[in-house]
């Protein structure tokens, strides 16, 4: 909205951790689709990994409902399993409605007592969270040949693809 939000220390590294572990990255925002180029340019400028980007269709009074509907359609229509969600306290209800366990809903910032049992607050920031993710990955690493993972930035497509589509276009392309 005219300003350049600062990137929290370690945020890009956390997203890269998930991508390097073979997960598809999906950025879901309540911003209207008319801000698509600005948001995607910001993600690129700050070196966030490639991923699908979802915007609200035009201006809306209930962006959280659109976020939830989009993620639910990914689960049902595209058969995508959502394993973790990051955001603000406003997003807790979105992720909870999808059945995501509180242990996999990550909120950066000061803990709010009201949400204590509904999410994990990353009060110490993304750098500390990344250390926890890496420690857990080492503890649960498989003891055999490595499993196949998706190529960085390609998501299994023959050539790099621009995932800058509105929600309905993304779902049609997966159809």
UniProtKB/TrEMBL annotation:
<dbReference type="InterPro" id="IPR023214">
    <property type="entry name" value="HAD_sf"/>
</dbReference>
<dbReference type="GO" id="GO:0031210">
    <property type="term" value="F:phosphatidylcholine binding"/>
</dbReference>
<protein>
    <submittedName>
        <fullName>Membrane-associated phosphatidylinositol transfer protein 1</fullName>
    </submittedName>
</protein>
<dbReference type="GO" id="GO:0005737">
    <property type="term" value="C:cytoplasm"/>
</dbReference>
<dbReference type="InterPro" id="IPR031315">
    <property type="entry name" value="LNS2/PITP"/>
</dbReference>
<dbReference type="GO" id="GO:0008526">
    <property type="term" value="F:phosphatidylinositol transfer activity"/>
</dbReference>
<dbReference type="Pfam" id="PF24694">
    <property type="entry name" value="LNS2_PITM1-3"/>
</dbReference>
<dbReference type="GO" id="GO:0035091">
    <property type="term" value="F:phosphatidylinositol binding"/>
</dbReference>
<dbReference type="GO" id="GO:0008525">
    <property type="term" value="F:phosphatidylcholine transporter activity"/>
</dbReference>
<dbReference type="InterPro" id="IPR036412">
    <property type="entry name" value="HAD-like_sf"/>
</dbReference>
<feature type="domain" description="LNS2/PITP">
    <location>
        <begin position="1"/>
        <end position="117"/>
    </location>
</feature>
<dbReference type="InterPro" id="IPR001666">
    <property type="entry name" value="PI_transfer"/>
</dbReference>
């Amino acid at each position: 909205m005219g300003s350049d939000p600062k990137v929290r220390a370690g945020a890009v590294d956390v997203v890269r951790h998930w991508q390097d572990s073979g997960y598809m990255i999906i950025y879901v925002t309540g911003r209207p689709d008319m801000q698509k180029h600005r948001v995607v340019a910001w993600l690129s400028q700050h070196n966030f990994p490639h991923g699908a980007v979802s915007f609200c269709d035009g201006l809306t009074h209930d962006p959280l409902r659109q976020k939830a509907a989009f993620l639910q359609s990914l689960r049902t229509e595209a058969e995508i399993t959502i394993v973790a969600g990051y955001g603000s306290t406003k997003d807790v209800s979105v992720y909870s409605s999808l059945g995501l366990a509180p242990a996999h809903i990550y909120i950066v910032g000061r803990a709010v007592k009201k949400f204590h049992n509904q999410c994990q607050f990353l009060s110490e920031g993304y750098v500390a969270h990344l250390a926890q993710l890496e420690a857990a990955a080492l503890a649960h690493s498989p003891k055999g040949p490595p499993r196949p993972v998706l190529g960085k930035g390609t998501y299994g497509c023959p050539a790099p693809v621009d995932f800058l589509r509105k929600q309905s276009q993304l779902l049609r392309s997966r159809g």
